Amino acid sequence: MTVTEPTLEEQAVRSRHRVKTYGEVFTPRHMVDQMLDLVGDDLETSPDFVDRTFLEPAAGHGNFLVAILRRKLLAIEKRYPAEAWAAESLFALASIYGIELLEDNHQDAKAVMLAEFHGFHQAHGTPCGPDTDLHRAATFLIETNIVRGDTLTGKTPTGDDIQFSWWHRIDGKPGEVRRDPFTLASLRDDAGFDFTAYDSYGECRIEKVHEQEKADA
Ligand SMILES: C[S@@+](CC[C@H](N)C(=O)[O-])C[C@H]1O[C@@H](n2cnc3c(N)ncnc32)[C@H](O)[C@@H]1O
Known about the structure:
Layout: H1 16-22, H2 29-37, H3 40-45, E1 54-56, H4 63-79, H5 85-94, E2 96-100, H6 103-123, H7 133-145, E3 146-148, E4 163-170, E5 173-183, H8 184-188, E6 203-205
Parallel strand pairs: 1-2, 2-3
Antiparallel strand pairs: 4-5, 5-6
Bound molecules: S-adenosylmethionine.
Protein backbone atom coordinates (compact mmCIF):
# COMPACT_ATOMS: atom_id res chain seq x y z
CA MET A 1 0.00 0.00 0.00
CA THR A 2 1.37 3.44 -0.86
CA VAL A 3 0.93 6.22 1.65
CA THR A 4 0.68 9.63 0.05
CA GLU A 5 1.61 12.88 1.78
CA PRO A 6 -1.45 14.98 2.67
CA THR A 7 -1.85 18.06 0.50
CA LEU A 8 -1.83 21.44 2.24
CA GLU A 9 -5.62 21.52 2.17
CA GLU A 10 -5.74 18.10 3.91
CA GLN A 11 -3.20 18.92 6.64
CA ALA A 12 -4.82 19.62 10.04
CA VAL A 13 -1.80 20.31 12.25
CA ARG A 14 1.80 21.28 11.52
CA SER A 15 3.23 20.87 15.03
CA ARG A 16 2.11 20.68 18.66
CA HIS A 17 4.10 23.81 19.41
CA ARG A 18 2.15 25.77 16.82
CA VAL A 19 -1.17 24.43 18.04
CA LYS A 20 -0.33 25.64 21.55
CA THR A 21 1.22 28.96 20.61
CA TYR A 22 -0.91 30.11 17.70
CA GLY A 23 -4.00 27.94 17.96
CA GLU A 24 -3.02 26.54 14.59
CA VAL A 25 -5.43 23.75 13.66
CA PHE A 26 -6.68 23.75 10.11
CA THR A 27 -10.30 23.09 9.18
CA PRO A 28 -10.57 19.98 6.98
CA ARG A 29 -11.69 20.47 3.40
CA HIS A 30 -15.06 18.75 3.79
CA MET A 31 -15.94 21.09 6.68
CA VAL A 32 -14.78 24.12 4.72
CA ASP A 33 -17.09 23.02 1.91
CA GLN A 34 -20.01 22.47 4.29
CA MET A 35 -19.53 25.90 5.84
CA LEU A 36 -19.36 27.56 2.45
CA ASP A 37 -22.57 25.79 1.42
CA LEU A 38 -24.24 28.04 4.01
CA VAL A 39 -23.27 31.11 1.98
CA GLY A 40 -23.79 29.63 -1.48
CA ASP A 41 -25.86 32.63 -2.48
CA ASP A 42 -22.93 35.01 -1.87
CA LEU A 43 -20.50 32.69 -3.62
CA GLU A 44 -22.42 31.50 -6.63
CA THR A 45 -25.94 32.65 -7.27
CA SER A 46 -26.67 36.23 -6.24
CA PRO A 47 -26.57 38.71 -9.15
CA ASP A 48 -23.37 40.31 -7.76
CA PHE A 49 -21.78 37.10 -6.47
CA VAL A 50 -18.40 37.92 -8.03
CA ASP A 51 -18.10 41.06 -5.89
CA ARG A 52 -19.45 39.72 -2.59
CA THR A 53 -16.56 40.22 -0.18
CA PHE A 54 -15.01 37.70 2.18
CA LEU A 55 -12.41 38.41 4.89
CA GLU A 56 -10.58 35.47 6.53
CA PRO A 57 -9.08 37.00 9.71
CA ALA A 58 -6.94 33.94 10.57
CA ALA A 59 -6.17 32.70 7.09
CA GLY A 60 -3.84 29.82 7.93
CA HIS A 61 -2.54 28.22 4.75
CA GLY A 62 -5.46 29.56 2.77
CA ASN A 63 -7.92 26.67 2.89
CA PHE A 64 -11.01 28.89 3.15
CA LEU A 65 -9.63 31.52 0.79
CA VAL A 66 -8.92 29.03 -1.98
CA ALA A 67 -12.24 27.24 -1.56
CA ILE A 68 -14.04 30.59 -1.89
CA LEU A 69 -12.06 31.41 -5.02
CA ARG A 70 -12.66 27.95 -6.52
CA ARG A 71 -16.41 28.28 -6.08
CA LYS A 72 -16.55 31.78 -7.49
CA LEU A 73 -14.50 30.71 -10.52
CA LEU A 74 -16.77 27.74 -11.21
CA ALA A 75 -19.80 30.02 -10.98
CA ILE A 76 -18.16 32.55 -13.33
CA GLU A 77 -17.56 29.74 -15.83
CA LYS A 78 -21.25 28.81 -15.65
CA ARG A 79 -22.78 32.27 -15.67
CA TYR A 80 -20.55 34.46 -17.81
CA PRO A 81 -19.51 34.23 -21.48
CA ALA A 82 -15.91 33.08 -22.00
CA GLU A 83 -14.75 36.54 -23.08
CA ALA A 84 -15.59 37.87 -19.61
CA TRP A 85 -13.71 35.17 -17.65
CA ALA A 86 -10.38 36.99 -17.43
CA ALA A 87 -11.79 40.22 -15.95
CA GLU A 88 -14.40 38.48 -13.79
CA SER A 89 -11.83 36.07 -12.35
CA LEU A 90 -9.72 39.09 -11.35
CA PHE A 91 -12.75 40.77 -9.75
CA ALA A 92 -13.31 37.51 -7.84
CA LEU A 93 -9.73 37.68 -6.52
CA ALA A 94 -10.31 41.33 -5.63
CA SER A 95 -13.28 40.33 -3.43
CA ILE A 96 -11.32 37.91 -1.22
CA TYR A 97 -9.28 39.26 1.71
CA GLY A 98 -7.15 37.52 4.31
CA ILE A 99 -4.90 38.21 7.29
CA GLU A 100 -2.36 35.74 8.65
CA LEU A 101 0.15 36.12 11.47
CA LEU A 102 2.78 33.56 10.49
CA GLU A 103 5.07 34.07 7.56
CA ASP A 104 5.02 30.51 6.17
CA ASN A 105 1.24 30.28 6.33
CA HIS A 106 0.96 33.69 4.71
CA GLN A 107 3.20 32.61 1.83
CA ASP A 108 1.28 29.35 1.42
CA ALA A 109 -2.07 31.16 1.40
CA LYS A 110 -0.95 33.46 -1.40
CA ALA A 111 0.64 30.63 -3.38
CA VAL A 112 -2.45 28.43 -3.21
CA MET A 113 -4.62 31.30 -4.49
CA LEU A 114 -2.33 31.96 -7.43
CA ALA A 115 -2.15 28.24 -8.25
CA GLU A 116 -5.96 27.98 -8.25
CA PHE A 117 -6.25 31.04 -10.49
CA HIS A 118 -3.65 29.63 -12.90
CA GLY A 119 -5.34 26.22 -12.89
CA PHE A 120 -8.63 27.79 -13.93
CA HIS A 121 -7.13 29.68 -16.86
CA GLN A 122 -4.82 26.88 -17.95
CA ALA A 123 -7.82 24.53 -18.08
CA HIS A 124 -9.38 26.92 -20.60
CA GLY A 125 -6.22 27.46 -22.61
CA THR A 126 -5.94 31.11 -21.58
CA PRO A 127 -2.32 32.29 -21.44
CA CYS A 128 -1.47 33.12 -17.82
CA GLY A 129 2.33 32.86 -17.75
CA PRO A 130 4.57 35.22 -15.76
CA ASP A 131 4.78 37.71 -18.66
CA THR A 132 1.03 38.15 -19.06
CA ASP A 133 -1.06 40.97 -17.62
CA LEU A 134 -3.46 38.33 -16.28
CA HIS A 135 -0.71 36.82 -14.13
CA ARG A 136 0.67 40.20 -13.04
CA ALA A 137 -2.74 41.58 -12.11
CA ALA A 138 -3.63 38.38 -10.22
CA THR A 139 -0.35 38.42 -8.30
CA PHE A 140 -0.84 42.08 -7.46
CA LEU A 141 -4.41 41.58 -6.20
CA ILE A 142 -3.38 38.60 -4.08
CA GLU A 143 -0.42 40.51 -2.61
CA THR A 144 -2.63 43.50 -1.81
CA ASN A 145 -5.60 41.57 -0.38
CA ILE A 146 -3.87 38.81 1.58
CA VAL A 147 -1.68 40.47 4.14
CA ARG A 148 0.61 39.40 6.90
CA GLY A 149 -0.34 40.87 10.25
CA ASP A 150 -2.18 40.57 13.54
CA THR A 151 -5.93 40.83 13.21
CA LEU A 152 -6.32 41.66 16.89
CA THR A 153 -4.01 44.69 16.88
CA GLY A 154 -4.59 45.67 13.25
CA LYS A 155 -0.83 45.93 12.72
CA THR A 156 1.70 44.43 10.31
CA PRO A 157 4.92 42.82 11.62
CA THR A 158 6.66 46.20 11.17
CA GLY A 159 4.05 48.00 13.28
CA ASP A 160 2.21 49.71 10.43
CA ASP A 161 -1.57 49.71 10.18
CA ILE A 162 -2.91 46.81 8.14
CA GLN A 163 -4.12 48.38 4.93
CA PHE A 164 -6.57 46.92 2.45
CA SER A 165 -8.05 48.27 -0.76
CA TRP A 166 -11.59 48.41 -2.01
CA TRP A 167 -11.80 47.64 -5.73
CA HIS A 168 -14.68 49.66 -7.14
CA ARG A 169 -16.23 48.71 -10.45
CA ILE A 170 -16.81 51.74 -12.65
CA ASP A 171 -20.40 52.36 -13.74
CA GLY A 172 -20.82 52.06 -17.49
CA LYS A 173 -17.24 50.79 -18.02
CA PRO A 174 -17.22 47.00 -17.77
CA GLY A 175 -13.87 45.53 -16.71
CA GLU A 176 -12.65 48.84 -15.24
CA VAL A 177 -11.70 49.30 -11.62
CA ARG A 178 -10.64 52.00 -9.17
CA ARG A 179 -8.61 51.20 -6.10
CA ASP A 180 -9.41 52.87 -2.77
CA PRO A 181 -7.18 51.97 0.19
CA PHE A 182 -8.45 51.87 3.78
CA THR A 183 -7.22 50.47 7.09
CA LEU A 184 -8.47 47.39 8.91
CA ALA A 185 -8.80 49.62 11.99
CA SER A 186 -11.29 51.86 10.16
CA LEU A 187 -13.58 48.86 9.65
CA ARG A 188 -13.96 48.74 13.42
CA ASP A 189 -14.75 52.43 13.82
CA ASP A 190 -18.35 53.49 14.08
CA ALA A 191 -17.58 55.99 11.35
CA GLY A 192 -17.00 53.10 8.88
CA PHE A 193 -14.41 52.84 6.12
CA ASP A 194 -11.96 55.70 6.07
CA PHE A 195 -10.96 56.14 2.44
CA THR A 196 -9.50 59.59 3.04
CA ALA A 197 -6.33 58.74 4.93
CA TYR A 198 -4.50 57.06 2.05
CA ASP A 199 -3.51 57.53 -1.55
CA SER A 200 -6.17 57.38 -4.20
CA TYR A 201 -5.79 55.81 -7.62
CA GLY A 202 -7.20 56.41 -11.07
CA GLU A 203 -9.45 54.12 -13.10
CA CYS A 204 -8.03 51.36 -15.30
CA ARG A 205 -8.80 47.95 -16.81
CA ILE A 206 -8.55 45.37 -14.06
CA GLU A 207 -5.97 43.42 -16.12
CA LYS A 208 -3.72 46.50 -15.78
CA VAL A 209 -4.32 47.19 -12.11
CA HIS A 210 -0.71 46.38 -11.23
CA GLU A 211 0.42 49.33 -13.39
CA GLN A 212 -1.84 51.87 -11.77
CA GLU A 213 -0.12 54.97 -10.48
CA LYS A 214 -1.36 56.89 -7.48
CA ALA A 215 -3.75 59.60 -8.65
CA ASP A 216 -1.94 62.25 -6.59
CA ALA A 217 1.60 61.10 -7.49
C1 LIG B 1 -7.00 27.66 13.99
S1 LIG B 1 -5.92 28.17 12.63
C2 LIG B 1 -7.20 28.32 11.45
C3 LIG B 1 -6.76 28.48 10.03
C4 LIG B 1 -7.90 28.49 9.04
N1 LIG B 1 -8.78 29.62 9.31
C5 LIG B 1 -8.70 27.21 9.15
O1 LIG B 1 -9.83 27.27 9.64
O2 LIG B 1 -8.19 26.18 8.76
C6 LIG B 1 -5.57 29.80 13.12
C7 LIG B 1 -4.63 30.57 12.21
O3 LIG B 1 -4.67 31.92 12.63
C8 LIG B 1 -3.38 32.45 12.73
N2 LIG B 1 -3.45 33.46 13.79
C9 LIG B 1 -3.41 33.30 15.13
N3 LIG B 1 -3.54 34.47 15.75
C10 LIG B 1 -3.68 35.41 14.78
C11 LIG B 1 -3.84 36.83 14.80
N4 LIG B 1 -3.91 37.52 15.94
N5 LIG B 1 -3.95 37.48 13.62
C12 LIG B 1 -3.90 36.81 12.44
N6 LIG B 1 -3.73 35.47 12.37
C13 LIG B 1 -3.62 34.78 13.52
C14 LIG B 1 -2.49 31.27 13.06
O4 LIG B 1 -1.17 31.51 12.65
C15 LIG B 1 -3.18 30.15 12.27
O5 LIG B 1 -2.67 30.06 10.97
